[in-house]
Amino acid sequence: MSKKIIIVGAGPGGLSAAMSLCKDGYDVQVFEEKPYVGGRNGNIKLGEYNFDIGPTFFLMKSVLENIFESTGRKLEDYVKLYNLETMYRLSYSDEREFLASSNKEKMKTEMERLWKGSYKNYERYLAKEEKKYNRLAGCFKVPYGKITDLLTPQFMRTIPVLNLHQTLYNSLKGYFKTEELTTSFAFQAKYIGMSPWKAPSIFSIISFIEHKEGICHVEGGLNQLSKAMAKVAEEDGCKIRLNTKVKKLVIEKKNVVGVELENGEIIKADDVILNADFAHAMTNIVDDNKLKKWKKKNIDKKLFSCSTFMLYIGLDKIYEDIPHHNIIFSKNYKNNVDEITQNKVLSEDPSFYIQNASITDKTLAPNGGSALYVLVPIANQLANIDWSKEKERYKNKIYELLETRGKLTDIKKHVKEELIITPDDWVNNFSVYNGATFSLGHNISQMLIFRPHNEFEDFKNCYLVGGGTHPGSGLPNIYESGQIAVKFIKDKYK
Ligand SMILES: Cc1cc2nc3c(=O)[nH]c(=O)nc-3n(C[C@H](O)[C@H](O)[C@H](O)COP(=O)(O)OP(=O)(O)OC[C@H]3O[C@@H](n4cnc5c(N)ncnc54)[C@H](O)[C@@H]3O)c2cc1C
């Protein structure tokens, strides 16, 4: 008889595992507390407008393509992908703008226009980072459960390129002469909720991946990826129960033997995979007195990523001159980053990101309209900001900035729909601990063997997937966490 596996959460991590287990004939049930699949990679519908809740940058699509292939499917049969030639518009404090392009000729013209002589440094950056990437890439596909996992030939080969003593910003300074240019390849630390001045230098591979492989959009939004993953899993027999909250893990001695649902129903399983945000899961669905390493008091000593203030706006017009992705740097970027990550105060000079996806994808809004997504990196809930007081004021501030720095002239006159998400909402409506949207921080002391292991350390028959676990946040890593968990389970029953 096939082994019974329960997955708690239908986020990208849980769905990655579900697809592969179902393909191999496991009896898989996914319990998801929300009425939709995808978790933070789900969809928000406001009237006739569609938005991604979270991810808007689809990088390293080959990771997901490979998972689809391993189930005998093709990703392109399930979703329509667009490669964005203009990757993003970066807007600096002096109002100058840089259009980063995946077309190397256009990139050269643009870089030389802004910073004469800089393109050769860019080529040097691409060549050196490629070597680093080639050595590191395999490390995100395997588990790190014990110290000896750091002694494998694969990991040893990465040591010369790790530069553990260097921060991301300092390592990039080695290629680029101006602060502006360095920042343009370092701001990606925000994708994992970190400061470029604190994140380890290995994360220079994020901007490298963008410049090497480009950035994809998915028709209908990146939430379509999760929907496609759920579809494949269901085609192979997966049972996904939406609106079904898991109250507790059922634990006998040190073995997880099933889950208890909120309605009191107990469902037994051979193995349980936890995809709920790691810190949320430890503090909400596992009895603290049964935990050993990951008790709340230990979780609370960890560093958490930043949070985000979100605005989803349905407009009755399209801003045709605004590219798909736009990053607007604050007047003093370093100070803004320190406010978010160290001083934990609400920045009055924020940097922000605008996604104007409707210029690429007409399915997101009614005819002539557009679905605008605005993300403002801010301090997580540990900042003790009273969002019931600040929410409206901050929203108005962001509208002003959208109008001035963002160049969305008269935006307020065109608003038809609007939704705000604050750190409190990330906690209360999306089950994200501390409102840390990118989960646990990615400092060296919280990576590899120091990050929550995919084979759970505290109990048997339990596996962890998702952004708060190894290898880390970001869709490709999260998909890999699901694959690593699957390998543990398959090896166990071989
Ligand atoms: C605003 C934002 C922007 C982002 N942008 C990008 C980007 O551009 N590119 C990128 O690669 N990544 C991005 N990310 C990071 C990351 O890819 C996503 O957050 C991703 O959705 C995380 O996946 P996950 O599987 O770890 O968890 P989640 O997506 O949070 O899924 C966990 C699931 O578990 C469910 N759950 C929790 N508790 C229970 C329970 N008790 N019972 C049942 N179900 C439960 C939740 O409802 C949820 O569906 C972004 C994240 C955010 C928030």
How would you describe this protein?
With 494 residues, the protein is α/β, with parallel strands linked by helices. It folds into three domains: 4-81 and 220-302 and 441-492, FAD/NAD(P)-binding domain (3-Layer(bba) Sandwich); 103-212, no CATH class; 306-430, 2-Layer Sandwich (Guanine Nucleotide Dissociation Inhibitor, domain 2). Helix content is 33%, strand content 19%. It is globular. The structure holds flavin-adenine dinucleotide.
Top CATH class of the largest domain: Alpha Beta
* CATH topology group of the largest domain: FAD/NAD(P)-binding domain
Output mean pLDDT. 96
> What's the count of strands?
19
- Unreliable stretches (pLDDT < 50, length at least 5) are none
In percent terms, what proportion of residues is strand? 15-25%
- Helical proportion, percent range: 25-40%
Q: Main sheet, how many strands, which sense, barrel?
A: 7 strands, mixed
SS-derived structural category? alpha/beta
Provide the gyration radius in Å.
22 Å
Instruction: Specify the CATH homologous superfamily of the largest domain.
Output: FAD/NAD(P)-binding domain
Which descriptors would you attach to this protein?
494 residues, alpha/beta, FAD/NAD(P)-binding domain, Guanine Nucleotide Dissociation Inhibitor, domain 2, 7-stranded mixed β-sheet, 16 helices, 19 strands, 33% helix, globular, binds flavin-adenine dinucleotide
